[in-house]
Amino acid sequence: MSSPALPPLSLYVHIPWCIKKCPYCDFNSHTAPQALPETEYVAALQCELRNALDLAAGRPLHSIFFGGGTPSLFSARAIEEILITAEQTLGFTGDIEITLEANPGAAEQRRFHGYRAAGVNRLSIGVQSFSAAQLDQLGRVHSADEAHLAIGMAQKAGFERINIDLMHGLPGQTPELALEDLQRALESGADHLSWYQLTLEPNTAFYSNPPALPGEETLDEIALGGHQRLLEAGFEQYEVSAYQSAGGARHNLNYWEFGDYLAVGAGAHAKITSISDGNWQVTRSHNSRRPEDYLQRSNPCAGSKIIGRNELPLEFMLNALRLRRGVPAQLFEARTGLSLESIAAPLARLRREGLLEPSAERLQTTALGYRFLNSVVAAFDSE
Fold first, then answer.
1. Which tens digits make up the pLDDT trace of 200-253?
2. In the chain, what are the domains?
3. How far is the CA of 368 from the CAs of 17, 205, 355, 358, in angstroms?
4. Which helix (H) or strand (E) holds 229?
5. How far apart are CA 212 and CA 222, in angstroms?
6. What's this model's pTM, rounded to 2 decimal places?
7. Which residues of 59-98 are buried (b: 16+ CB within 10 A; e: fewer)?
8. Residue 212, Cβ density class (10 Å: 0-12 exposed, 13-18 middle, ≥19 buried)
9. For residue range 140-179, what is the model confidence (pLDDT) as tens digits?
């Protein structure tokens, strides 16, 4: 009998600096110092990558995602050095997807050709809105014209795969304005849209001093109208806030399918599976959040936790059921080492209630279940 296979392996690289902190952002991002410590930070990332060889357990990387912060503050040469070390240390699959987040801005756009030459083959551009008034309220440092220019320059640089981050439910936004914003994104030629609602998160300026956001009825109208507009344009919703016209983002899919990912950089979070004598162990870990702490510590890991067997069903479903088409039922066993019989009771109840599709071959919500996804997922909470 063959040994169980480990999940596919991805890599997340966190670049923690931005030109300025946006008032809605709760990510681990920090205002960039006047002299960005690019050389020192790249060296620290390379050291982490070399130390991750055992965790990879012989698996090559099938996707890499440079997130932040604003990774496009780093030079193309810096990104290339990180990729060279990752390939030499861990290895790449032949069709690896390498995504870099970029913000519209003249200095960063000039680097797009360099990123493409370095091996990046997908860009995720943080537009957020094409409205000058909304960009101002969101504290963005680019204009609507720069957003359009950035997308065009990415295409000229040879990027065939481009994601646009676009927010809705913005201060004072009407359904008409939201759909106008969405239409401009659809006309840009991007093949992937992350279209998500602005929420007020703790530890942000907006949370401390909240702007006037649209009411629930308006938000519902925006969501329904936007969803229909995206479908009419040939986009498929494959995840809660992700739409594709070609293939979904491989890196994101690996998250939702409960795959493994190494993570390097300040505040980066990793998930790694190990299998010994048929026993699964899933470990989550995270690095020091503050860039200065990350750079000063020989071991940047700030903590790790083994996910208990009783927690694995909830962890798995939190991810897998975000996918509109769900996942094959056998993936639960392949990613957790648990039998489907161990979750037979909640599966049967959710199917009786019309929240999960009746097929025993897939774990997939119905349209009703997708609307009440939090309740569906909570059924797998053992506490």
1. 999 999 999 999 999 999 999 999 999 999 999 999 999 999 999 977 799 999
2. 9-254 (3.20.20.70), 326-383 (no CATH)
3. 40, 35, 6, 13
4. helix 216-232
5. 16
6. 0.96
7. bebbbbbbbbbbbbbbbbebbbbbbebbbeebebeeebbb
8. exposed
9. 888 888 999 999 999 999 999 999 999 999 999 999 999 9
